[in-house]
User: What shape does this take?
Amino acid sequence: MSQGHFFLYLFTLTAFLSVMKMLFTRTILYAALSLIVCLISIAGIYALLYAEFLAITQIVIYAGGVLVLILFGIMLTNRISGKPLSLESNHLVVGLIVSVGIFFVLVTSYSKTSIKAFENIPPQGNHISEVGIQLMSTYVIPFEIAGVLLLVCLIGASLMASSFKKNDNV
Amino acid sequence: MSEQSLLFGLGAFLFCAGLFIVFTKKNAIMILLGIELMLNAANINLIVFNKLNPANYDGQFFALFVIVIAVCEAAVGIAIVLKAYHFYRTSVPDQISDLKEKN
Assistant: This one.
């Protein structure tokens, strides 16, 4: 077993275990923290598949940005009532049937399809700078649209989350 | 088990775990966590399929834009949850039932 292979199995195992922890924990803060572990393991998988730019993006944006935002959300929605956030479940049977059913559909459809096996070799040349060049040439229109979308989201989210007194009775 | 089927299995498992969380958990923030998990499962599949054709980077760019959309969704979702919490004093969507028929 090669070294990269071993780390791939290790990251898959940590992602699996952290998601199981997320499913069965009773505290929402622990769920958010195990989601951080899962996202960092996925970043490791990206790095092992030679998608280094995406791995760094995953760590910076998800583990650094989104999860901190969600932790802020958890702490702010804990503030007024003072009682801990409820992490009860409902519709357990329906959720279990639907998700396990979709899992079996995905697994059987994958096992019935013949996809050629990839060989995990490093791409030719300097592929990270190639990603940057393509982002600014071939994919420049989606890039710009994503920038506009991020600006709209920033303005909209800060407008919604800011608590003006006159807006409170809307 | 080959690397490929391992990663496809991980993607399917993450997607179904996220779906299960969205279905069953009552808290709105937990639902947002489940949506993030489902988007990450899609990203894993995009990267693995990109390895089948390593000459171009379509899958990586698609995953990058999925991450951007996920960031926007999380920011707006948290803002809506906070606003609803200030108004209704709860972050459980089942308890926000103003439009429901009173009986």
The radius of gyration of chain B is 18 Å. Chain B has a mean pLDDT of 88. Chain B is about 75% helix and 0% strand. The longest helix of chain B spans residues 58-88.
